């Protein structure tokens, strides 16, 4: 059930958005090739392009990428090595210790370094950035040195962490009380090493990775099933995911067996039988395991794994997510559809949504006709992940939570979640590590291919180098400020092939033209429109996705709603004014005031208020949910599952 306002002036304003004024994306240059896994994924029918095959054009996405890259180039690898070296009884080489969640006394120090390895590897893969490549190489070399000193440090072969191995002994004995989540950290390090191996071709990273994975095998194979279940009660990230990835990458079945030791029956069993028992669970302890289930399906073909992942997605998106695509309150899932009572300053942990995007992508590649997956992906990426970065910070620091309380403000969560934007060296929260990963993989889900079909999933300025076919696709758009995007194909475009274009569920009256001529192509909302033709170099496809104001009511309170315009959530700009309750919005008063920007005015609590895209709401107090006076009920079509 969706209430929309087809107000003539809104449509007129939307239709005026032009694509011609937008600069095209910069020329694509082939990035370095990443390694091909030994095993291909089972069940996949849409394939990603290598990160380096897609370049961003001028846009908020590119700005975010630039700021993340600046931080990745700036951050000192020696400081990030401090705890590893100290723990493995090596000199810290005069480096300064970090603060925050990487301070020398913090229980799960060295959880964040794996994120940096991944981000540096992705920056190299996507952009060919050699500064990031060299930092990754430097860290891996030093990590190899840490492992080489294990005997002197009293650790088992392959061990690699910034805290003593005795934390694992305590974990296995059920006596770990210092707050550490040791396998969570190991998961991050394994993933970072895997990404350095596959994106940089680093055989040293491969060796360190295999040694650490071997240590995990040695450590877990001697545990009884009951003891292993007890170990899994402490957050362990996506150990099943990364070890399955290692199986796919190497072809060595040893790693699948180790991965499956981390199958958590308490999480998997209810999901396999399609029961939503998420209430009260720590959200980001769950999502990485769901990703692991998707990976285990693709490695084994066992449909139970696929069902676990797909059911988890349905529950999380359909019953536990806010309008911006985020989930969790105080890091925990609440009762299904309990939204209205949980609009607080500690909603929407960034890690959860980034990981949900990963899960969504995994599931969509199994079922690439399901637009609901990508509609969610777009909504969560734009409104939550993109908006979680501070655009006034040259290092692109992030907010841990995205507050949804009345008068909430990004970077002003509770003290235990940082309470501010992240900093260069004094934060290192989980979400900061997630943020550098997110800012270096923004190109990974725009386009996909399968044989002679190209899928266009996201609308943002970009250039695709479809190198297998010698085709370049240049997308120019100001979306979502404009409802129109242009895709020009050049190069060796001859012969018949298909362009498959996502038509979001929220639009109506979508049109597709080629070189200015309307095409007789079915463009039903919530489906893909397929344009099959014999192409000529220079052909330009124009896609128009009319946008309108819609209300998205909280599942449990039809009078409490967020406002959307196309994919963008709109929020009220309240400056420094505190709000004690959601403002009462006159929905009919919402008026677009610009043809080139998503700028609106409205009346709320009897006073005028400016509405802006939520992803651009930084530096002021906002209202994301409103009292709408019974003018609507229910959620938008994006959530209809
Ligand atoms: Zn986090």
From TrEMBL:
Source superkingdom: Bacteria
Domain Non-reducing end beta-L-arabinofuranosidase-like GH127 middle residues, every copy: 453-547
Gene Ontology biological process terms from the UniProt entry: carbohydrate metabolic process
Ranges for domain Non-reducing end beta-L-arabinofuranosidase-like GH127 catalytic: 54-442
InterPro entries noted in UniProt: 6-hairpin_glycosidase_sf, Beta-AFase-like_GH127_cat, Beta-AFase-like_GH127_middle, TAT_signal
Protein name: Secreted protein
């Amino acid at each position: 059930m969706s209430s929309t306002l087809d107000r003539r002036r809104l449509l007129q304003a939307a239709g005026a958005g032009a694509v011609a004024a937008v600069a095209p994306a910069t020329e694509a240059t082939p990035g370095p090739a990443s390694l091909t896994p030994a095993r291909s994924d089972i069940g996949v029918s849409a394939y990603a392009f290598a990160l380096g095959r897609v370049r961003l054009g001028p846009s908020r996405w590119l700005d975010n990428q630039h700021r993340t890259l600046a931080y990745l180039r700036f951050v000192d690898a020696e400081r990030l090595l401090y705890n590893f070296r100290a723990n493995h009884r090596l000199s810290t080489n005069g480096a300064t210790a970090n603060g925050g969640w990487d301070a020398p006394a913090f229980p799960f120090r060295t959880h964040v370094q794996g994120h940096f390895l991944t981000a540096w590897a992705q920056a190299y893969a996507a952009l060919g950035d050699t500064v990031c490549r060299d930092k990754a190489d430097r860290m891996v070399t030093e990590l190899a040195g840490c492992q080489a000193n294990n005997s002197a440090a009293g650790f088992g072969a392959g061990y690699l962490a910034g805290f003593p191995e005795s934390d694992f002994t305590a974990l296995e004995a059920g006596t770990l009380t210092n707050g550490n989540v040791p396998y969570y950290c190991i998961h991050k390090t394994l993933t970072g090493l895997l990404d350095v191996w596959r994106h940089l071709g680093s055989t040293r990273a491969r060796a360190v990775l295999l040694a650490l994975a071997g240590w995990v095998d040695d450590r877990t194979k001697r545990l009884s099933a009951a003891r292993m279940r007890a170990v899994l009660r402490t957050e362990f990230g996506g150990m099943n995911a990364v070890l399955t990835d290692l199986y796919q990458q190497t072809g060595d079945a040893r790693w699948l067996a180790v991965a499956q030791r981390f199958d958590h029956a308490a999480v998997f069993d209810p999901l396999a039988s399609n029961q939503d028992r998420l209430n009260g669970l720590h959200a980001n302890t769950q999502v990485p395991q769901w990703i692991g289930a998707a990976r285990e399906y693709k490695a084994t073909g066992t449909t139970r794994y696929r069902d676990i992942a797909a059911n988890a997605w349905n529950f999380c998106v359909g019953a536990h997510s806010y309008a911006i695509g985020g989930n969790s309150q105080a890091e925990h899932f609440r009762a299904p559809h309990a939204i209205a009572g949980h609009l607080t300053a500690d909603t929407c942990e960034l890690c959860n949504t980034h990981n949900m995007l990963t899960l969504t992508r995994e599931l969509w590649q199994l079922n690439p006709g399901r637009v609901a997956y990508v509609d969610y992906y777009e909504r969560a990426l734009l409104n939550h992940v993109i908006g979680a970065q501070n655009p006034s910070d040259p290092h692109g620091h992030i907010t841990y939570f995205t507050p949804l309380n009345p008068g909430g403000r990004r970077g002003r969560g509770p003290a235990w979640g940082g309470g501010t934007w992240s900093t260069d060296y004094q934060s290192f929260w989980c979400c900061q590590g997630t943020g550098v990963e997110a800012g270096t993989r923004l190109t990974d889900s725009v386009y996909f291919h399968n044989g002679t079909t190209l899928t266009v999933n996201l609308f943002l300025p970009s250039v695709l180098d479809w190198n297998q076919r010698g085709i370049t696709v240049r997308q120019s758009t100001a979306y979502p400020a404009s409802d129109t995007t242009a895709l020009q194909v050049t190069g060796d475009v001859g012969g018949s092939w298909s362009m498959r274009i996502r038509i979001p569920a929220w639009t109506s009256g979508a049109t597709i033209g080629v070189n200015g001529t309307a095409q007789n192509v079915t463009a039903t909302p919530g489906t893909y429109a397929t344009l099959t033709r014999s192409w000529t170099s220079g052909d330009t496809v124009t896609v128009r996705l009319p946008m309108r104001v819609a209300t998205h009511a909280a599942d449990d309170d039809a009078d409490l709603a967020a406002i959307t315009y196309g994919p963008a959530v709109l929020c009220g700009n309240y400056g420094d004014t505190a709000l004690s309750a959601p403002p009462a919005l006159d929905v009919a008063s919402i008026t677009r005031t610009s043809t080139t920007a998503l700028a609106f005015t409205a009346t709320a609590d009897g006073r005028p208020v400016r509405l802006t895209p939520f992803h651009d709401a930084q530096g002021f107090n906002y209202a994301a949910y409103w009292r709408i006076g019974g003018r609507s009920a229910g959620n938008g079509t994006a959530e209809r599952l």
